[in-house]
Amino acid sequence: MDELVKGFLSYLTVRKASNTVKSYRTDLFQFVRYLQANGIFSLSEANSGHIDGFITSLNLSRTSLSRKLAAISSFFRYLKRQKLILSNPVDDVEPIKIRRKKPDFLSLDEIRLLRHHSSKESLIVIEFLLSTGIRVSELCSLNLRDISFEKREATVTGKGNKQRTVIFSKNCSMLLREYVSGSKSEALFTNKKGRRITPNMVYYRIRRLGESVLRRRIHPH
After folding, report:
1. Is residue 175 pLDDT above 90, yes or no?
2. Which of 6, 66, 125, 135 could bridge to 96 as Cys pair (CB 3.0-4.6 Å)?
């Protein structure tokens, strides 16, 4: 069973982000150890009852349990495609329902306030996030060569090293041109020392702005 898990993880390496593969590794080997402890030494013998028992044995949040179930389901789908099993036992397992929080968002008035009270360094970060909708990690990894001012486009590298093109506004383009003027850094967004900014810096800046200007906690997403 360990070898089948390793083969699946190798298959995932070129298709999923490294953090996802790492999580799947932990989840699947934990599941295999549970099966072995219960006298199951072939994945073809595993059924929905074993999966239910594994999930029930864990004292975790619904979100974590749902992630583990997703990893197991993905693994069995892979085994079925490889014709190593006849059916996916997860198909007979009750899905784990997760209560979704209502989305939190900024009003136009709040966005105007943030723009008005932001420093030059924070303003361009906020404008770029608002204009493109990219993730903080993607923003921090951008390089100057990824930007086309003529087309107002940015080439973004996301999860699994997959690239996509996003568009930014005229106002954002104007601010960005001014921001990078004279920059000698490869990174697009930098701190005062010219070093690439980190996600923690972005979270801190935006949280501080939200608390001081809007009197509530906000986050980049």
Report:
1. yes
2. 66
User: Helices 120-132 and 108-117 meet at what angle, rounded to 10?
Assistant: 150
User: What is the separation of C-alpha 3 from the centre of its chain, rounded to a whole number of angstroms?
Assistant: 28
| ∠ CA 132-16-57, rounded to 5° | 115
Other C-beta atoms lying within 10 Å of the C-beta of residue 122: 18
Work out the angle at residue 100's Cα, subtended by the Cα atoms of residues 21 and 16, and round it to the nearest 5 degrees.
15
Average pLDDT over residues 139-167: 92
For residue 165, the cross-strand partners are 155
What confidence category does residue 171 fall into, taking pLDDT thresholds of 50, 70 and 90? very high
Which residue intervals of 135-214 are DSSP H helices?
Answer: 136-141, 170-180, 199-209
Distance separating the N- and C-terminal Cα atoms of the chain? 40
d(CA 140, CA 191): 11
Task: In whole angstroms, give the CA distance from residue 70 to residue 181.
Answer: 47
Helices 120-132 and 199-209 pack at an angle, to 10 degrees, of 100
Provide the token pair at 218.
């906000």
The pLDDT-based confidence of 154 (bands split at 50, 70, 90) is very high
Question: Comparing C-alpha atoms, which of 176, 54, 164 is closest to residue 125?
Answer: 176
Tell me the C-alpha to C-alpha distance, in Å, between residue 76 and each of 45, 129, 199, 202: 12, 38, 35, 39
Residue with tokens 């924070």: 122
* Residue 190 bridge partners (DSSP): 196
d(CA 110, CA 11): 46
Contact yes or no for 146/134 (Cβ under 8 A): no
